[in-house]
UniProtKB/TrEMBL annotation:
Keyword annotations of the record: DNA-binding, Transcription, Transcription regulation
Naturally occurring in which organism (per UniProt): Corynebacterium nuruki
ATP-binding as UniProt keyword: no
Ranges that cross the membrane: none
Lineage of the organism: Bacteria, Bacillati, Actinomycetota, Actinomycetes, Mycobacteriales
Name assigned to this protein: LysR family transcriptional regulator
Amino acid sequence: MYPNVPPVDQLVTLIAVDEHRSIAAAARALGFSQQTVSARVAAAEKTLGVAVFRRGINGSEPTERGRTVLDAAHDYLGATATFSRAVTAAARPDAARSLPVAVSNTVAELYFPSWAARFHRENPHVRILLRPCNSAEVCDAVASGEAVLGFVEGAEVTHGLASDVVGVDDLVLVVPASHPWAGTEVTAGQLRRTPLIMREEGSGSREIVEKVLGQVAEPAGEFGSLSAQRAAVTGMGEPTVIAARAVAAQVNSGELVRVPVRDITFRRMLRAVRPRGRDLPSADPDAATLLAIARETGGGRVGGHER
């Protein structure tokens, strides 16, 4: 494929002759006979079509074109060494690997850090490449092959993907302590008529609220993360339905108040999504290990199943 590139051993010999400025000195440094070094230099020059050295009574000096070849040989051998190290590392049983995972924003903030921490402790040579996004985008990433595994919350799984339930996540209605609803119970009708602080379109949180309530009022505001949604409740003073874990500290401190909703609960499944028909243990054992950890330590004790 590269007919004018001599073998590595010949390039090493050229560089040794350049460094020592003589065939004899290079031979001693390399541990070969002068005849072997001379033969390698001649073979390299023939392959290259370039007279690399000018030989004289004072030794071997590079020609002008030879200097160009020798400089390039240094770069070539450096790249060859890098390649060799990479191949050696890749061949090791404990070689570093990457695991691209797409995770919904809620799962990424509330659940995935503990899953990733345990996975790293047990698999230190595997690097998780996390892509946080909303649930719809997680499904897109897995379907397109950008991620081998995804985690979402909610009911909808698109693109014909298989899903495995790994836990449950409860959402609650909260208001600031000064809100008129604090200390009361509200109805589904009141919620439908009240502008709520909502997550963005495509998020699993919004999906479950709209699925449970049906038609809802125009949101008081839409936010792309749990932290922004949580801050907006206090800042804007409006109600929101949010993951219970996300506001546990604020509820415990009294900053926010949980408001019961008569005859309604907002419970959603945490799901792992993957291409249908893909056997993870054989196709991607690292993904299968992460999935097992998520099942064991997910939001609740729910038996996994494929949908």
